[in-house]
Design a protein that fits this description.
four-stranded mixed sheet; two-stranded antiparallel sheet; 11 helices
Length: 247
């Protein structure tokens, strides 16, 4: 496992095949300025390229917020051209995270864990610029997404869970423990199958059903040619635990 890079606005640590990425600007509720976006890119590129890392947990420092959103102090002085560039850069970082090829769990702490999710950009004269207008409808549907985006209102954790924005709601003290447990459950499975499952879902959502099914069949075929597939099927027939090696 390679050493973790030293980052200005993040805490970044690697332990037992898990990379921990912690936003570390608690005085401004972990707001995202350009330097923090740069650090996020560096951390996730490192996690992607480190063969010993099999999953990532993203969380925030402090007990008040996971991510408060954009850094308003920086945003207040940005030009139109700079705003477009900043939006595109943030979108690219989020694409990196989404398509990392390894599972990433957002352990949402602070305000979010205790109650609040929202897209308040319209209250600042803006629209969501980090992908919110595109990813949110894909997660919760067009109607719910528009209500959140156009109202600038907030919803609590239970409502977020009900509409499918978050997978689970757990007590704040159990947050990292539960995230680690989910990753360890994933780690018990074949690494290549996990990677291709992520690819099939993410790429399939961007195309029509017929093309998605074709992609699924191709990736299914690639999995069938791996040593892990031979090990997994043999272990099942022999009624023993499989020993996967990611090849």
């Amino acid at each position: 496992m390679s050493p973790s890079p030293i980052l200005e606005n993040l805490l970044y640590e690697k332990r037992s095949a898990i990379a921990y990425v912690t936003l570390n600007r608690p005085k401004v509720l972990n707001a995202l300025n350009q330097a923090t976006w740069n650090d996020l890119r560096t951390a996730f590129e490192d996690a992607r390229d480190d063969a010993e890392i099999r999953g990532v947990i993203l969380t925030g420092a402090g007990d008040k917020a996971f991510i408060a959103g954009a850094d308003i102090g920086e945003l207040a002085h940005i030009t139109a051209v700079e705003a477009e560039q900043s939006s595109s850069y943030g979108q690219a970082v989020l694409d990196l995270i989404e398509n990392l090829g390894k599972p990433v769990i957002a352990a949402v702490n602070g305000y979010a864990a205790h109650a609040k999710f929202g897209q308040p950009e319209v209250t600042l004269g803006l629209i969501p610029g980090g992908g919110g207008t595109q990813r949110l409808p894909r997660l919760v549907g067009k109607g719910r997404a528009l209500q959140l985006i156009l109202s600038g209102g907030m919803i609590d954790a239970q409502e977020s869970h009900r509409i499918g924005l978050v997978n689970e709601v757990v007590p704040a003290g159990d947050l990292l423990t539960r995230a680690e447990a989910i990753l360890k459950q994933i780690f018990a499975n074949a690494p290549i199958a996990v990677k291709f499952s992520l690819e099939a879902v993410n790429r399939g959502l961007e195309t029509n059903l017929a093309e998605g099914l074709s992609l699924e069949a191709s990736l299914f075929g690639l999995c069938a040619g791996t040593d892990d597939k031979a090990e997994g099927t043999s272990a099942f027939l022999a009624k023993r635990a499989p020993q996967f090696h990611g090849r």
